[in-house]
Design the sequence.
C-alpha cells in the first residue's frame, strides 16, 4: 500500500480547517446554555402606602435579579402622597391602600390590585388590664365611641377594671390605614380622634411607648416577620365580631401573623378593615418595563406574598388584574 504524504502547505490547511470545525462544534454544543441578552431597561419610580412598601421593595429586588438593567426608586409616604404623586406624573406607580375616590378616577387613576392585607387596631401590652382586654375584646360600637365620638375615655369602660384614661393615637398623614379604619364606621379619616403621628412605624412606636395607648397599624408593622409573632410591647386588639362580650374561639386568631392572614383570607376578619392593595397609575401603563414588572408581581412575585405577611389574591382575581396590564 502506498501512503500519500501531504505537503507542508496542505498539512497547514488541514490543521486550520480542523481548528475551525473544533471551535464551531464547541459553540454548537454549548448554545443551549447561553443566556440571551436582556433588552429590558429603564427606571421605575414608586411612592405611597406604608402598607405596600415592604413587599414592593421585595418584588423590586427579585425583579432586578431577572432584569439587572431596570432601576427602581421607591419611597413610602402614605397612600395619599403616592396617589397624588402618580396622578401628577412625579412617579410611575402610586402605592394605594384605600379605595380610589371618583374624583381621582376622573384625573386618570388606573388601579391594578396586587395583594390583600388588613389594618389592625393595637394596644400596649403593658396595660394593667391587658389579659382581660384580650379575653373580652372590643365591640365595633366601642371602637366607634373611642375613635369617633370620644364618649368612651377610660379603659374601664371597655373591658378593664383599672380606671386608666385611654390615649388615642391616629395617623397624621393621608393614609390608607386611617381611611380604611374610618370606613369601618362609615366615616372618613378626618373624623378620627387622637394624637396624630406620621407613618406606620411612628404610630407603632407611639403605642409601644404608652401603656394607656390605643392605635392601629398595618400587619407588617405589628408582627415580626421572622418569629411571626407580635413585636414586643404592642398587640392586636381583638374585635368582638359577634358582640357577645368575649373573644370566642373563631375570633381568636391574633397570636401569629399566619393565623391572622388565614382568618382574613377566610373572611372571619371584617372587611373593612381588611382591604385590597394596589398599584395606581395615571392611565393604563404602557412602558415595557412597567408592564413587565406588574405582570411579574401578579405571577412569580406572588410566592413572596405569604411569607411577608400579606394575603395572596385568588386565581380568578389575578387573572382579572393581569387583563388590566395587557
Sequence:
Amino acid at each position: 500500500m502506498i501512503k500519500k504524504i501531504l505537503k507542508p502547505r496542505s498539512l497547514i490547511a488541514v490543521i486550520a480547517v480542523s481548528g475551525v470545525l473544533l471551535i464551531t462544534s464547541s459553540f454548537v454544543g454549548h448554545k443551549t446554555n447561553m443566556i440571551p441578552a436582556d433588552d429590558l431597561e429603564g427606571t421605575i419610580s414608586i411612592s405611597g402606602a406604608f402598607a405596600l412598601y415592604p413587599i414592593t421593595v421585595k418584588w423590586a429586588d427579585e425583579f432586578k435579579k431577572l432584569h439587572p438593567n431596570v432601576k427602581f426608586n421607591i419611597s413610602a409616604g402614605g397612600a395619599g402622597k403616592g396617589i397624588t404623586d402618580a396622578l401628577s406624573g412625579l412617579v410611575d406607580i402610586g402605592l394605594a391602600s384605600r379605595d380610589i375616590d371618583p374624583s381621582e378616577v376622573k384625573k386618570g387613576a388606573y388601579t391594578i390590585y396586587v395583594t390583600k392585607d388588613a389594618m389592625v387596631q393595637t394596644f400596649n401590652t403593658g396595660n394593667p388590664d391587658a389579659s382581660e382586654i384580650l379575653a373580652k375584646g372590643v365591640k365595633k360600637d366601642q371602637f366607634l365611641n373611642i375613635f369617633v365620638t370620644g364618649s368612651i375615655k377610660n379603659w374601664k369602660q371597655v373591658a378593664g377594671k383599672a380606671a386608666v384614661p385611654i390615649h388615642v393615637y391616629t395617623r397624621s398623614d393621608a393614609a390608607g390605614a386611617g381611611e380604611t379604619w374610618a370606613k369601618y364606621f362609615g366615616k372618613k379619616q378626618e373624623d378620627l380622634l387622637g394624637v396624630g403621628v406620621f407613618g406606620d412605624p411612628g404610630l407603632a412606636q407611639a403605642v409601644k411607648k404608652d401603656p394607656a395607648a390605643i392605635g392601629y397599624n398595618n400587619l407588617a408593622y405589628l408582627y415580626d416577620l421572622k418569629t411571626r409573632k407580635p413585636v414586643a410591647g404592642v398587640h392586636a386588639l381583638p374585635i368582638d365580631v359577634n358582640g357577645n362580650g368575649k373573644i370566642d374561639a373563631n375570633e381568636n386568631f391574633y397570636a401569629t401573623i399566619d393565623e391572622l392572614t388565614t382568618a382574613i383570607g377566610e373572611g372571619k376578619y371584617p372587611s373593612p378593615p381588611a382591604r385590597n392593595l394596589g398599584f395606581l397609575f395615571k392611565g393604563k401603563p404602557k412602558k415595557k418595563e412597567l408592564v413587565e414588572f406588574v405582570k411579574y408581581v401578579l405571577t412569580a412575585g406572588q410566592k413572596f406574598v405569604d411569607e411577608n405577611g400579606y394575603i395572596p389574591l385568588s386565581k380568578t382575581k389575578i387573572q382579572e388584574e393581569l387583563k388590566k396590564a395587557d
Observations:
- The domain at 42-116+275-325 is CATH 3.40.190.10 (D-Maltodextrin-Binding Protein; domain 2).
